[in-house]
Amino acid sequence: MENLVRDWLKRSRLGTAMDLRRIQVAWNDVTGAGRYTSRIFLKNGRLYVTMTSSVARSQLLFQKRAIIEKINAALAQDSLYSGNSAGGNNIQELIVK
Fold first, then answer.
1. Number of domains in the chain
2. What pTM, to 2 d.p., does this model score?
C-alpha cells in the first residue's frame, strides 16, 4: 500500500508539495524556530530559510551542520518522502537569511 501511495503522489505532482511540507515540519521539529520562519524552499540540495528574527537567525547559523544532519535523519525515517528513493542526504547546504 505504501508503494502505491508513493507512486500516486509522484504521478499527481502532489509529491513536491508534500515533500516541502515534510521539510517544513522537520525544520520546526529540529530547530523549534517555526514561528520565526517566514519562508522555506529547497532547490538543488540547498535549503533556503528566511527568518523574521535576527536573534534566531544568528543562533541557527552556529548550528548549520547539526541542523542539516538532523533534518536529513528525520526525512530518512519518513517512508513517504520522495527524496528517500534517490538515497543519500537530501539537504546538502543550509542558507539562512
1. 1
2. 0.84
